[in-house]
Amino acid sequence: PPERKRFYQNVSISQGEGGFEINLDHRKLKTPQAKLFTVPSEALAIAVATEWDSQKDTIKFYTMHLTTLCNTALDNPTQRNKMQLIRAAVKFLETDTVCYRVEEPPALAELQRNEWDPVVAWAEKRYNVAIGSSTSILGPNIPASTKETFVSHLASYNMWALQGIEYVITQLKSLILSMGLIDRHITVEKAVLLSRLEEEYQIQRWGNVEWAHDYDLCELRARAAAGTLFVHLCSESSTVKHKLLQD
């Protein structure tokens, strides 16, 4: 949506019957489908309220990734159930960025081995699965047992967290990097770098468009970080004790 002039002074949260609500002055925040904006944890409510409070003269909706993810979880515009979300996430294994390798140029092939092999090895050990990689245009042949293991693992997350996981996967184009990020095995900066390895290689070799590369990099980091934070906050059972938006 286009930018909108900020129409509120104060942002606060309150606890309602369905969870935690966001208040813009005396108005209750609503979703695009006009549902009451209610989130399952106080920590997530604080994070969303901070997004709204940090807006200046205009509301830049495109910077409010947590609010957007909550709207998606509440409105479920694609009307998918939990298993459909899980299957969509696991399907990314078939085209996972870190599983597709090049043979030429040798320097890029070596870079992929050095940077991607360790995270693939981590995932294989962490989940007790076989993943592998391939230089074929068809990609690697992922065993059915590997896919089912990831289906079972993702089933342990709730619907809200799954929306966040799928969001991170679509940003990084990789289930493996996303799980490494969510499991705190790699940082946001590392996950983004690994997802853009070929592009970064080309930039090192040929240079980059002066501002566009940095902007894209920051945007991708922001989205990946927001999605990961969303997953963790939606999986959080404890209540945040400190006050909202303290000076």
Automatic annotation (TrEMBL):
It is found in: Mitochondrion inner membrane. Pfam families: ATP12. Its main location: mitochondrion. GO terms for cellular component: mitochondrial inner membrane. Keywords: Chaperone, Membrane, Mitochondrion, Mitochondrion inner membrane, Transit peptide. The keyword Ligase does not apply. It is a peripheral membrane protein. GO terms for biological process: mitochondrial proton-transporting ATP synthase complex assembly. InterPro entries: ATP12_ATP_synth-F1-assembly (IPR011419), ATP12_ATP_synth-F1-assembly_N (IPR042272), ATP12_ortho_dom_sf (IPR023335). Plays a role in the assembly of the F1 component of the mitochondrial ATP synthase (ATPase). Belongs to the ATP12 family. Interacts with ATP5F1B; involved in the assembly of the F1 component of the mitochondrial ATP synthase (ATPase). Interacts with FMC1. This is ATP synthase mitochondrial F1 complex assembly factor 2.
